[in-house]
Specification:
The complex is a heterodimer of chains A (about 170) and B (about 190). Chain A has about 170 residues and is mainly α. Chain A has six helices and no strands. In chain B, α3 runs antiparallel to α7. The chains are: A mainly alpha (about 170), B mainly alpha (about 190).
Chain lengths: ~170, ~190
């Protein structure tokens, strides 16, 4: 598993383990990147597309890649395919997981604005929101705050120590 | 209020500078169909939406458009970042350079600065939502023009993502529009 997509193939093969979250120490130590990456990968995202009663709502990865969580609303341009997202570091990889989960909540949120009584969409929204919070906590403990209100700067001001979003991410 | 999150909505990592493309792409920052106009069009219209559903949808789409302003800005910045003066002249960006150096500035592809005249607020929700639907379609069309002007996959990827967002926003505005028509709001 050496990129973002491999992780998803792995997950889609039936592995959606959240054990890592209860054992954060497994991330810490002198492990090489490959191992770290695998540990991070196994933990973070549970693809909920198979649990959705609404088959029209895509899984978080496919929806994020397309920029559209709703299969029936997808309208491609010419024969362009959505970009395959590849991370070149663990930091970038975790950030993509956060972006992916956040995107699911953004798109489901707009849908819920118009259809507030759709329980299935509301459940998905809350599931993705909870997953996002978990990955954000993990990310911030390793790479610094994503928002000023983050818990990780209780002892040190870390806000200016991490890359700005408009810089090419490594 | 708004809270800043130190990440883009979707990754932007452009490795190859391309000043010509920056010059065209900037229109989705400061042009009439760009993201800045979209953000403030919706955030400004939301106050006079007739119900909570409309206030919610315009607030949330307007907020997402702010994230798109940031994505487009990041793309323009990365396309121009390492430019030499020679390259700036070659791309016809000397007038931008004279006024703004290498900083970002919201203009359209012809260099005309952003103006709030790009959006209207009539106070009539059906008229405002019609304008919003048209704005999303125009932005979609401009994204397609921009995709046609480049072959850099690092640029095309985010443009395809942003183009899909126009389709979603159009759909949600239309759903609200249809509901308002049925309810007889005007």
């Amino acid at each position: 598993m050496n990129n973002y997509n491999d992780y998803y193939n792995y997950l889609n093969s039936g592995y959606g383990d959240m054990n890592y979250m209860t054992n954060p120490n497994s991330m810490i130590g002198d492990l090489n990147y490959q191992t770290m990456y695998s540990n991070a990968m196994m933990s973070n995202i549970t693809d909920l597309s198979n649990t959705s009663k609404d088959k029209n709502i895509l899984g978080a990865y496919e929806g994020f890649k397309r920029g559209n969580m709703f299969d029936n609303l997808y309208d491609g341009y010419k024969n362009y395919k959505p970009a395959e997202l590849k991370a070149s570091s663990e930091r970038e990889d975790m950030l993509m997981q956060i972006q992916e989960l956040r995107f699911a909540t953004i798109d489901l949120g707009l849908y819920l604005d118009v259809y507030p009584n759709d329980r299935n969409a509301l459940n998905l929204f809350n599931n993705y929101l909870n997953q996002e919070k978990e990955v954000v906590n993990l990310f911030e403990s390793k790479y610094g705050p994503l928002t000023l209100g983050s818990d990780v700067q209780r002892n040190d001001w870390l806000w200016d120590n991490s890359p700005w979003p408009w810089e090419v991410q490594k | 209020m708004w809270k800043f999150v130190k990440s883009l909505e979707y990754p932007v990592n452009i490795k190859k500078k391309d000043l010509r493309m920056a010059k065209y792409l900037v229109t989705q920052y400061g042009g009439s169909n760009g993201e800045l106009a979209a953000a403030w069009r919706y955030l400004n219209q939301r106050y006079t939406m007739p119900d909570d559903k409309g206030k919610a949808l315009l607030t949330d789409i307007g907020t997402e458009e702010l994230a798109h302003v940031e994505m487009i800005s990041a793309m323009v910045y990365q396309l121009m970042k390492d430019a030499t003066l020679e390259e700036i002249k070659e791309a016809g960006l000397e007038s931008h350079y004279a006024e703004h150096g290498k900083s970002l500035y919201p203009t359209d592809a012809n260099g005309i600065p952003f103006t709030v005249a790009y959006f209207a607020s009539t106070g009539d929700p059906v008229a405002d939502l019609s304008e919003d639907m048209a704005a999303e379609q125009k932005a979609r069309a401009v994204y397609e023009n921009l995709i046609n002007l480049t072959d850099d996959p690092d640029v095309i990827g985010p443009l395809l993502f942003l183009r899909q967002r126009e389709i979603i926003h159009f759909t949600r505005f239309k759903e609200l529009y249809d509901e308002y028509k049925k309810k007889g709001y005007e």
